[in-house]
Amino acid sequence: MHLLLTLDAGRAACARALVPQQPFHVGLDFHGVTAVLATNSGYLVEHIRLGYGYFEAQPAEKPDITVLSLEDGKEHFEASFVSLLPGRKVQHNVVVPLEGELIFLLRDRPSMAYYTTMNLFDGLVVRLRCYYTCLHAATVSSDARAVILCGAARCGKTSLTANLVARGFDYSADDVTLLERKGLAVAAFPRAINVREEYQELAPVLLAGARRIGRFKIADQERLIVDLGRSAPESVAPSIVCFPRYRPSQPTELRRLDEAEALVGLMQNRFHPLSDQLDSNIAADFDTLGRLVERCACYSLLFSDPMAASNLIAEHLLESKGAP
Q1: Chain-wide mean pLDDT for the chain?
Q2: Looking at domain 132-190+230-318, which of 3.90.228.20, 3.40.20.10, 1.10.150.20, 3.40.50.1000 is its CATH number?
Q3: Closest among 309, 323, 312, 261 to 289, alpha carbons compared
């Protein structure tokens, strides 16, 4: 559970003054978009550094995104809380995206971690939208040919990604794919792979050769977070778009999609800022994704066996240049 308060001008000024007072500052650089997390929480620092270590950089003097996160009971908490929210009872963890309009008051650390990363990501999407279409998709590649695995949560992206990486594929993204508007290349977004507890059977595949591993409770669920520690290609050219869907107890089924079906699926799986109510980039996304489906072979993939499905992608899609 959480409460929301408005970040008015007075509270925003107070929050900005609290940023340099925090004991921890983590800098991130997402393809030129800089972010700083200011916090009193060692737990949160560990979480961010494990998940987003690829993007860690020296904190920018004037970052594009600043998030202040305060954990109850830790250093500077009470004084910071009273300064930010005078007259309110000192309780709850606090997350303040300084470029946003709300203050999040949260009851537990898992929610604090979730809302911190959510606000960092939302600020990132706002600033990258001019250059990229942001897809809810994984991307892996082999011999400079990439496959985009696009779909919502629990469709099987992580299962397929883990198996393909274990086969030697290069890893570009697990959940967030940045597609350049101009050249249609996929820019690297290799955050640590985030595995829900019900998919812990993936652990042996992911743990082999992993650089760092952590277990965190995010929102209300235990997660395994695995930093593969591998250098990601700076950009790769997609040749295949695949829409996987996990379907228990059914044989693997691959079907070629026409351009209209694929375009609808991609448009349904875009990330756009929470604050962008009118979705002003929809026309640009439509154009970018329309050109993508013209260039790529597009498929739906129904499967119950991730290994068999990833073998199909590796052996038939990539090696035969799109012909199943």
Answers
A1: 87
A2: 3.90.228.20
A3: 261
